[in-house]
Write a structure and sequence with these properties.
Elements (H helix, E strand, L loop, with lengths): L1 E7 L5 H10 L3 E3 L7 H7 L9 E5 L10 H9 L4 E8 L2 H11 L12 H11 L1 H5 L3 E4 L5 H11 L9 E8 L10 E4 L20 H8 L2 H23 L4 E8 L5 H14 L4 E6 L4 E4 H8 L1
Parallel strand pairs: 1-3, 1-4, 2-3, 4-5, 6-8, 6-9, 7-8
Antiparallel strand pairs: 9-10
Length: 295
């Protein structure tokens, strides 16, 4: 059995993540006291949990978070493997969400305002954040996008090997904090300045044709593939399960989308599980499922 520890800042989407995991058939327990984590892992078969992957929600409401590193070490000595999914968002986004929903942050008191409670929560959850296999910043992700991303990304709970997420984004909207690699393609010719292409995206044939006519684009694509083919296996050899590769252009509509699609298609031909997310287009796809549908 594999345990998926789901944690994160209040207001970042942990409840939505757990609900999404439950929807795809995982056994989920929210707010498990961290001291019970090793005992739960050891006794899961005796208490009738017959699943390959179980999701456990742990957040700042519980106590003894400082003991988490030692508890995870105890867990590593059992026959149960674990992974950590950590959700976060920018402070101003969290403040806005709590203001809009009028919910109370679990750490706020008469003497601790919301902004200070969020900072304190970051410190309390740091032991888990530092051990996270996947970190998702939901600042620019709505509920539906998060559900799709969780559903696709967590599909590897029942699979083996390295999962690659290729993500396009626009620099003017901020960089994705969860990325392992960030590549900047703003130096390449921009289809935005062609009026016939302005309202299209890097997934459209006309934009693809325009970019593939550019010698710099071909050179950049070859160099990125060569770089990733060299270093992705090194991460895999280090027992990494997830890798996020982000490609950014100015608005996240043309060049970055094209490169994310191209790289994903290339590495999909190898033994990796490949996902594609276009942050500014609100699109998340799984190449393996698309490939299977076409066969």
């Amino acid at each position: 059995m594999k345990i998926l520890i789901v944690s994160g800042l209040s207001g970042s989407g942990k409840t939505i993540a757990l609900q999404s995991l439950e929807d795809i058939g995982l056994y989920c327990i929210d707010n498990l006291p961290v001291a019970l984590l090793p005992a739960f892992a050891e006794q899961s078969e005796q208490i009738g949990i017959d699943q390959k992957c179980v999701a456990l929600g742990i957040d700042a409401r519980t106590t003894a978070l400082s003991d988490m590193p030692a508890l995870l070490q105890r867990l590593e000595r059992t026959n149960v493997t674990y992974q950590v999914l950590f959700l976060e968002a920018d402070d101003e986004i969290l403040i806005k969400r709590f203001s809009e929903t009028r919910r109370k942050h679990p750490l706020t008191t008469a003497d601790l305002p919301l902004a200070e409670a969020i900072k304190r929560e970051r410190i309390l959850l740091e032991p888990l954040a530092n051990r996270a296999d996947i970190r998702i910043n939901t600042s620019k992700t709505d509920v539906h996008q998060l559900r799709d991303l969780i559903r696709l990304r967590m599909g590897i709970c029942s699979s083996t090997g390295l999962s690659l997420l290729f993500q396009s984004f626009g620099f003017k909207y901020g960089i994705p904090h969860e990325a392992d690699f960030i590549f900047d393609v703003r130096c390449l010719p921009n289809p935005h300045w062609e009026s016939r292409l302005r309202n299209l995206t890097g997934r459209d044939t006309a934009v693809i044709f325009f970019l593939e006519e550019q010698a710099q684009v071909k050179k950049m694509r070859e160099h990125l593939i060569r770089f990733l083919e060299t270093w992705i296996p090194e991460f895999e050899a280090d027992n990494r399960n997830y890798l996020t590769i982000a490609i950014g252009c100015t608005g996240g509509q043309h060049r970055s989308v094209y490169f994310a699609e191209q790289l994903a298609q290339h590495f999909n031909q190898q033994h990796y599980s490949v996902l594609v997310r276009h942050r500014e287009l609100s699109v998340v796809t799984e190449l393996l499922s698309i490939k299977a549908d076409n066969e």
